[in-house]
Amino acid sequence: MSEQSASVLRKIIHIDMDAFYASVEQRDFPEYRGKPLVVGGKPDSRGVVATASYEARQYGIRSAMSCSKAYQLCPTAIFVYPRFDAYTSASKSIREIFSRYTDIIEPLSLDEAYLDVTEDKLGIGSAIDIAQSIKNAIKNELNLTASAGVSVNKFVAKIASDMNKPDGLTFIGPSKIKGFMEKLPVEKFFGVGKVTAARMKAMQINTGADLKKLTEDQLLAQFGKSGKFYYKVVRGIDDRPVQSHRETKSVGAEDTFAEDTDEDSVMHSLLQQISVTVANRLEKHQLKGKTITLKIKFEDFKQITRSRSFSNPINKSDIIYCEAIKLLNEADIGLMKVRLLGITLSRFYEDLPLEKEDNNQLEFEF
After folding, report:
1. 16 is known to lie in a ligand binding site
2. Do 145 and 11 fall within a single domain?
3. 12, 215, 235, 331: which has the highest count of C-beta atoms within 10 A?
4. Is-contact 167 54, C-beta < 8 A?
5. Which residues are recorded as binding Mg(2+) (predicted)?
6. What does the alpha-carbon distance between residue 254 and residue 277 come to, in Å, rounded to a whole number?
7. Does 305 fall in a domain?
8. d(Cα 15, Cα 132) in Å, to the nearest integer?
9. Residue 326 within a domain
10. Domain containing residue 49: CATH number
């Protein structure tokens, strides 16, 4: 059994849709089925891969890869732009299925969520049976597939959901957690990106067993606050509750130029469009922000951000646009060519009602 006390064991399910955007496209357009499909834009659109179908992944295509690179890997792939309305609609239907079993649902994005089914609405009892029932409903009602991970905490359930994709169901019970965590490669740990993983491996920390040899103080000294989390989860301890209400932290939008530019008029025009998009999203969610952040990505893919905070919150497109222009001017980019611009509003006004949203951060490339 894990070192987490049996008295606090919960039944946690992590549901992760399989190649969600691509699967919705293949569901809605039969001509895409069984073919390598890339959602993100055309090969010459300078976009990035949002999702690739499993057929496309066989060629090495992955999320966040440039569409041009994806085309090089698979010239016969079908490239389409995202349809966020369709994905949002499917996500709402998936959420409705979740709510048949529990009200304790924590969405992480449109295509994944945690569910606490320690006490389920239908009295099924078995988290494994509930997960299978949810998967069946998603497949039968929406013609989509999901993978599920089941365990006693969020960390292990999330890792389990990725173990047998697509259309998998993996249960890691209390007696298996210790061995599972010790064998887990460090790059699979929450919060461990490429840089941290490389740093750990340089310290001869390759697996959970290696990580477990370090004291909490040693981990804190090496990795800051994350060290405390690593110390706990490698011992099977994750006390984080499933949060059924997650407040939106930021609302933003960004867009990539068709060609890199250093022309003020072109950048100003795009910032105006983005400002309108952000303002519409803020209005939809009844939000005003006290901090505006401008994101600038250059032709060499390096990026910078510039922010300004206000005493009074804002949500009007003209004000957002004016402040974004000021931040752009203050960035003093000179003759450097710009690839992408983005605007984000955060620090929302406390007196306004907050609508809950699928994503903790609402930011899409449009």
Report:
1. yes
2. yes
3. 12
4. no
5. 16, 111
6. 9
7. yes
8. 11
9. yes
10. 3.40.1170.60
339 and 222 part of one domain: no
Q: Which residue has the tokens 């061995």?
A: 179
**pLDDT 10s digits, 213-237:** 999 999 999 888 888 889 998 998 8
Q: Which of 131, 153, 173 is at the close of a domain?
A: 173
Q: Do 14 and 163 belong together in one domain?
A: yes
Secondary structure class of 127 (helix, strand, coil): helix
CA distance 315 to 332: 25
Burial of 187 (0-12, 13-18, 19+ CB in 10 A): middle
103 known ligand binder? no
Specify whether the CB–CB gap between 4 and 236 falls below 8 A.
Answer: yes
Q: Which residues are catalytic?
A: 112
Same-domain pairing of 279 and 358 = yes
Domain CATH number, residue 303? 3.30.1490.100
* Contact (CB, 8 A) for 243 and 106: yes
CB neighbour class for 55 (10 Å; exposed up to 12, middle 13-18, buried from 19):
buried
Distance CA 257, CA 90 (A): 30
CA torsion through residues 117, 122, 127, 133, sign: negative
- Whether 303 is in a domain gets the answer yes
What is the DSSP-derived secondary structure letter of residue 223?
H
Tens digit of each residue's pLDDT (9 = 90 or more) over 31-79: 999 999 999 888 876 778 889 999 999 999 998 888 899 999 999 999 9
Give dist(CA 63, CA 73) in Å, integer.
13
- Euclidean distance between CA atoms 42 and 78, whole angstroms: 9
Residue 63 and residue 90 in one domain:
no
For residue 189, being part of any structural domain is answered with yes
Q: 25, 85, 94, 84: which is closest to 55 by C-alpha?
A: 25
- Residue with structure tokens 């010459």? 44
Range of the structural domain that residue 46 is part of: 20-83
